[in-house]
Amino acid sequence: MATLALKGGKPVVDRPLGKTWPIFDECEERALMEVLHSRNWWRGGASPEKSKVSQFEDRFARYCQAKYGVAVTNGTQALECALKAAGVEAGDEVIVPALTFVATATSVALVNAVPIIVDVDPLTYNISIEAIEAAITDRTRAIIPVHNGGFPCDMDRIMEIADRHDLIVIEDCAHAHGSEYKGRRCGSLGHLSAFSFQQGKVMTCGEGGIVLTSDDELAEKAYSFMHIGRIPGRPFYEFHRVASNLRMTEWQGAVLLCQLERLDEQVERREQNTRYLAEGLKETPGVEPLVDFDMWGEGKFCTRWSFYYWNFKYKREEFEGIPRNRFIEALRAEGVPIGIGAHGEPIYHNPLFQRMNFGRTGCPIKCPLYGREIDYSKVYCPEAERIYKEEALSIPHAAFLGEREDMDLILEAIRKVRDNVDELR
Predict the structure, then answer these.
(1) What SS3 state is found at 69?
(2) Contact 306, 148 (CB under 8 A)
(3) CB 364 within 8 A of CB 90
(4) How far apart are CA 107 and CA 77, in angstroms?
(5) What is the pTM of this model?
(6) DSSP per-residue string spanning 266-328
(7) What's the pLDDT tens digit per position in 354-409?
(8) Tens-digit pLDDT profile for residues 320-340
(9) CA atoms of 303 and 307, how far apart (whole Å)
């Protein structure tokens, strides 16, 4: 009789792991009712001290050790707003990593600039420092490092490169609410940063985003690009820039204030469980943590690891040659919510890039202000390809919000698959 659930055996996990996401309680219910009865459902109808959105902007900026926050409608538009505040325009190039959500690149195109897609570091799955250096041209205006899976990029080196070449750095923190790099919070390390509060993120209001900065001028510009070109202190119907309406609603601000209250507790629980899981993985050949403990912990490179999903690695050669996707199939059958980490395929695999689908005129890629040839169908990032096809594994963040016994079940399922690997041949 087969042992593996994939072959008809009994699965190790017969219940959901962690917590059902999103999490809410009477805090959100009370806050939403306050907004309802206030009859002020948009951020412009109340003074900053009474606006839920304004309160959240201030509290979240302080939490991330930044000076200013500008809340917007979603994470993609947070990137667009940050790019506009940074002065990125037609003819400019912006360097982005191959392993990320596609919006990291499409936000660049949406402000009429050209995304330059580069490879990642095989150690962390974050943007490669060497690839950044190699991609810089006289057209380069900005870099968008993504803290993939919440593990921080090497921001000291990235900022050194940016200073040397007079570039703007916009952190994509969609995965990294509460993560720390050498004791400093992600979101405060670049010139600007962008967060997402989409349904699956570790803080959510369904949709939503925020731009953070500690630069006075960049903050004023981000606010203006969020608020249809208005600037603080001027008449309401006076507009200073061509800009859209990216305002977050008071409903979203109310929910996020409650989400922020429980974030630290959730980050701590996830870290406790991932440390336990990472230690346990060392007992099973072929599956290992993304990074060793010498990079993660007090006084280390990553002093706090919050994450949207937890990346770890599959080593086919140590798993008797069984393909990674076959391992994923077997572990899912055992009840473990496992997937391909690092956000799946390299973003240039998307039809948008393979077919160069940039509309009737082809702009911004064919913009005369750019004046260069670029063909994304010819982009190939070897490390990103290998990681996507062979190595990356991930488990979503909500699975780590339960008790230690949930981690024991995951470890038991992995050991079961390893012990019965012959059934996968």
Answers:
(1) strand
(2) no
(3) yes
(4) 7
(5) 0.97
(6) HHHHHHHHHHHHHHHHTTSTTEEESS-GGGBSTTSSEEE---SEEEEEE-GGGTTT--HHHHH
(7) 999 999 999 999 999 999 999 999 999 999 999 999 999 999 999 999 999 999 99
(8) 999 999 999 999 999 999 999
(9) 13
